Amino acid sequence: MAGDGFYGYRCEYCDAGHVRREIRGREIIRVTKTNYVILEDVPIGVCDHCHARYYTAAVIKHAERLHEKGTARKVQVPVGRYVAAG
Ligand SMILES: [Zn+2]
Prior knowledge:
Elements: E1 19-30, E2 36-47, E3 53-54, H1 57-69
Antiparallel strand pairs: 1-2, 2-3
The structure holds zinc ion.
């Protein structure tokens, strides 16, 4: 969803909650199929019912720019599928 016109509006996923503005200390944003960027202190929209997340076009663009520049500090994150023991 573009712009930031979703704050205060009804959630388009569950149609029950409303989208509230929150500042997240760390938010993981997907920029390509296999690449993610962690943005810090970022304002996002969160549904107060189903907790769906909404990002403004400016936030997504910022994450994409960080990814493309490749100069941001990085953390390595192991990825593995959960398999129940026993
Ligand atoms: Zn919702």
